[in-house]
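Ligand: manganese (III) ion. Inputs:
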Amino acid sequence: MPFTLPELPFAKTALEPHLSAETFDYHHGKHHNAYVTNLNKMIEGRPEAGKSLQEIIMSADGGMFNNAAQVWNHTFYWSCLKPGGGGEPTGALADAIKRDFGSFAKFREEFASAAATQFGSGWAWLVLDGGKLKVAQTANADTPLKHNQTALLTIDVWEHAYYIDFRNARPKYIETFMDKLVNWEFVAQNLAQAT
Ligand code: MN3
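Predicted complex:
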């Protein structure tokens, strides 16, 4: 069964003016779609054709890993966004952030710094690692699953994620993501499922 491009969990205009419909036309309609198409070509007629996306991520390397991981990373990233999002989480997630980072402000600083300093293409993450919340960076398609970490939140810092709306201003994109876009309910749900 070939993989399919999942629908965005919101209308492509829903995050304007922060992330435009044009960004989603390219980022979801062209980039994410290309990862799905490439992966399907690579697994056709091979044992991987019967595997789940996670199984392929764990066992594959090279181009097959890159495309499988990028399919997963992008699907996860869309769920990390919502209209009217951002700000601070509440409840058990807020408590866990305070426990492991000292304060929300400290977490925010560490996450934003990881996103800003990831050299070239990649991702910044909030992960659960050995029962603790941590900030992580991955390059290119690399993904926490491959490092035995559970992804809780991510920001895509490939230039294709922000160049249409923010040009070269990656820090402004990161600030907008934190202030206006993070879907903390999704992050809380990921934490609840992992603990
Ligand atoms: Mn991307």
